[in-house]
Amino acid sequence: MDVSLIISNFLNPPVLFFFLGMTAVFVKSDLEIPAPIPKLLSLYLLFAIGFKGGVELVKSGVTQEVVLTLLAAILMACIVPVYTFFILKWKLDTYDAAAIAATYGSISAVTFITASAFLSELGINFDGYMVAALALMESPAIIVGLILVNIFTVDEKREFSWPEVLQEAFLNSSVFLLVGSLIIGVLTGEHGWQVLEPFTQGLFYGVLTFFLLDMGLVAARRIKDLQKTGVFLILFAILIPIVNAGVGLVIAKIIGMPQGDSLLFAVLCASASYIAVPAAMRLTVPEANPSLYVSTALAVTFPFNIIVGIPLYQYGINLFWR
């Protein structure tokens, strides 16, 4: 593997600010970001990538390549929770296994954005409709996770409120804003992009960098929770992204995705949700322990992907896309 890819990725300002945030916690600095600001930054990032994705979708059109990519995204969002659930069932009860499986079946938009920045650094093109794939992979894992709980629990008194589940899966703020921005990008096209470009393009990396500073603070605070998870879940949180990315790359190769899109697809398959799915699981599967599915996704898988995972998946592409 080309170590320069890891070094290049590590030296990106957003990644370095992520570790600055972690360092602040480790050295017990009083650095704090007021609570409403990270929420505003995450909403901006979702709005910007959704809008850009819609504009790019108009440019590319709905071709066979686009349809196959979106179908592959839905397929991975449905099957990843299933096989990860059975792996996790070796050590965990049904509730925790289903919640973690749903977390790893869904995606991390920030990891996707970091991978986009990585591709831009390397000068590798990627298509904007990959944002549509991102949006489509957010919710199915929640539904699959809840179906697994229903099938494998024997407590007949336990009842789910399916309207609440579906509302949380498809209408939570992240999914709603992302899909809504995508649609507006499609409707306004190039004209809309020119009007909003100073806001959606010029500010983007600065906001991403500041957001990752906050993510570093949050991730470092979650590291203590890993003491409760044990070695099994820590290894799972490192190895399963590599497996998922490998499966994603095989699918990408079969359907003929170009290199840039393949990396983004692999990153989507390898990432884990630490916003939408935990919110849904906390509401619908209160028996599951949040310190397991949040800490593994945020304190292990997220930093692993942005430091080692993204260059590793690119290395695989460099080997097999020649």
From TrEMBL:
Transmembrane portions of the chain: 6-27, 39-55, 67-86, 98-119, 131-153, 165-187, 199-220, 232-256, 262-280, 292-313
Keyword vocabulary terms for this entry: Membrane, Transmembrane, Transmembrane helix
Pfam families: Sbt_1
InterPro entries (alphabetical): Sbt_1 (IPR010293)
Top-level division of the source organism's lineage: Bacteria
PANTHER family for this protein: SLR1512 PROTEIN (PTHR40400:SF1)
Name of this protein: Sodium-dependent bicarbonate transport family permease
Organism field: Halotia branconii CENA392
